[in-house]
């Protein structure tokens, strides 16, 4: 049976027992050796392929090149017990320390904002759990089945925390839920006792609580680095905990802890849903990936805009449009809409990361182009096109309580991340169109299944890696549940040297 962990603040005088703390409950879930259901195994494979797709497309982007250079500066000498970890793009015999592999590979996964998502009380990209878990599995010689179990745990814990605890309401970056989930996944992978994972979860949470300024104003490459940093420090936390070192406790419930001073305060309480003993970890099935390289709340609106491009091409011309208002959820309005009050969201010289978080820009380009491309749609020349800028600045957002309610609904049939476009033309016509979920969503017009994940990988990877490497990786990834430890090194991408050598990173300390 599922369990609900009631989380509240306790004064130090309570001497709250470890076994009554949320970090301990998370550790117990990690230690439960429950089998992984077949549909969860299948989805884990899908998300490994999905991560590889966006990794291939980002291998030559500056943040990824820099992170890879940092990782390579921390080589690992293989031994009989520890093997080091692979780095995306490089040959499997190039091995680095696992926390640095998690760093480099995590940046590559996150750079394009193009992998999976889960949105509830907070938001997340649960596939950020995969790079650190793969790195450690390679390092310690675990099997593919071990890795699948660990990934199922990582997803479960992150999704359960996201269902219950809002970070963004207090301007805390969402990676504060990722550090604990990676630590829990590593607990499963390594077969750690709950008291060890408990300490690692506490350390990982303590070191990954940071402000949301990484996703506000002039958004920089740190948006991609932040989740990789969470994975890196979670590995380091597990290493320390395995050596007997402790964490701040109680990390969530303490009177100077996370809930009391970073979240809803000393009188706050939350009900965190967790699997009960013997209950399978299935949260990955509630997550969804992206067809388009943009913030998830824009996915459905891109689909709606490209449909309008076909049906009403006149609306792509700013001369025909007086205004476009998107009625949507509180989160979409305040984070990627005009409710953020960020002038950068209307700036044609803004960074790619900023444009990715501007729904007015995204709607304008998708309406004009009838598509969304992970490179072309963000090109500086594309953003600066005069007719685009004119149309873009006619687009605003407003919060609609009905869409906010659907955003927060716990009913999968009602939960939605779309909105209603009201377009007023210069002739006085009002065009009203709405969409609830993206086409690729499980309830959308064209839900993603294995063929779509494979096609996304082929589309993004073939020109970078070549057909032979694409075929090789797909073979390894789809055999993940049966891979032996000696085969897990193949769960990486190898790019031609000419591709990687085309981009150089400035030198640093390492």
UniProtKB/TrEMBL annotation:
Alphabetical list of InterPro entries matching this protein: MmgE/PrpD_sf, MmgE/PrpD_sf_1, MmgE/PrpD_sf_2, MmgE_PrpD, MmgE_PrpD_C, MmgE_PrpD_N
Protein name stated in the entry: 2-methylcitrate dehydratase
SUPFAM superfamilies documented for this protein: 2-methylcitrate dehydratase PrpD
Domain MmgE/PrpD C-terminal span(s) in chain numbering: 292-479
Reactions performed catalytically: (2S,3S)-2-methylcitrate = 2-methyl-cis-aconitate + H2O
Molecular function per GO: 2-methylcitrate dehydratase activity
Protein source organism: Cellulomonas algicola
PANTHER family: 2-METHYLCITRATE DEHYDRATASE (PTHR16943:SF8), 2-METHYLCITRATE DEHYDRATASE-RELATED (PTHR16943)
Chain ranges of the MmgE/PrpD N-terminal domain: 21-269
Subunit composition and interactions: Monomer.
UniProt keyword annotations, A-Z: Lyase
Entry's family note: Belongs to the PrpD family.
Enzyme category, top tier: lyase
EC number(s) from the headed UniProt entry: 4.2.1.79
């Amino acid at each position: 049976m599922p369990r609900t962990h009631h989380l509240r603040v306790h004064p130090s005088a309570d001497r709250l027992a470890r076994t009554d703390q949320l970090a301990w409950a998370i550790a117990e879930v990690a230690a439960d050796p429950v089998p992984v259901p077949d549909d969860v195994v299948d989805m884990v494979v899908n998300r490994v392929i999905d991560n590889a797709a966006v990794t291939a497309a980002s291998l030559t982007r500056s943040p990824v090149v820099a992170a890879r250079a940092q990782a390579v500066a921390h080589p690992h000498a293989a031994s009989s017990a520890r093997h080091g970890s692979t780095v995306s793009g490089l040959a499997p015999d190039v091995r680095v320390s696992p926390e640095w592999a998690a760093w480099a590979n995590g940046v590559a996964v996150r750079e394009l904002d193009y992998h999976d998502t889960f949105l509830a009380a907070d938001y997340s990209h649960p596939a950020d759990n995969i790079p650190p878990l793969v790195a450690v599995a390679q390092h310690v010689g675990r099997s593919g089945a071990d890795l699948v179990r660990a990934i199922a745990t990582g997803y479960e814990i992150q999704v359960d925390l996201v269902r219950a605890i809002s970070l963004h309401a207090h301007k805390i970056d969402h990676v504060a839920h990722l550090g604990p989930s990676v630590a829990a996944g590593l607990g499963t992978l390594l077969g750690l006792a709950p008291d060890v994972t408990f300490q690692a979860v506490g350390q990982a949470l303590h070191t990954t609580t940071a402000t949301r300024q990484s996703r506000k104003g002039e958004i920089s490459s740190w948006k991609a680095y932040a989740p990789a940093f969470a994975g890196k420090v979670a590995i380091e936390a597990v290493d320390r905990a395995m050596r007997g070192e402790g964490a701040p406790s109680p990390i969530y419930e303490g009177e100077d802890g996370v809930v009391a001073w970073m979240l809803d305060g000393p009188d706050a309480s939350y009900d965190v849903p967790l699997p009960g003993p013997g209950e399978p970890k299935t949260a990955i099935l509630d997550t969804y990936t992206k067809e388009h390289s943009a913030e998830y709340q824009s996915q459905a609106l891109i689909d709606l805009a490209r449909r309008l491009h076909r049906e009403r091409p006149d609306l792509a011309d700013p001369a025909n449009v007086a205004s476009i208002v998107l009625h949507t959820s509180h989160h979409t309005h305040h984070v990627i809409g005009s409710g953020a009050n960020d002038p950068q969201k209307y700036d044609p010289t803004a960074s790619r990361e900023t444009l990715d978080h501007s729904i007015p820009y995204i709607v304008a380009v998708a309406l004009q182009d009838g598509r969304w491309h992970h490179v072309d749609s963000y090109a500086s020349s594309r953003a600066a096109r005069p007719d685009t800028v004119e149309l873009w600045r006619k687009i605003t957002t407003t919060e609609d309580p009905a869409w906010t309610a659907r955003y927060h609904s716990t009913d999968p049939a009602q939960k939605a991340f779309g909105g209603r476009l009201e377009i007023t033309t210069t002739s006085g016509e009002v065009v009203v169109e709405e969409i609830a979920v993206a086409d690729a969503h499980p309830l959308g017009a064209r839900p993603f299944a294995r063929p779509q994940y494979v096609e996304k990988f082929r589309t993004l990877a073939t020109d970078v890696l070549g057909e032979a490497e694409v075929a090789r990786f797909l073979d390894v990834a789809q055999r993940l549940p049966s891979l032996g430890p000696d085969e897990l090194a193949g769960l990486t991408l190898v790019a031609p040297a000419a591709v990687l050598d085309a981009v150089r990173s400035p030198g640093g300390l390492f």
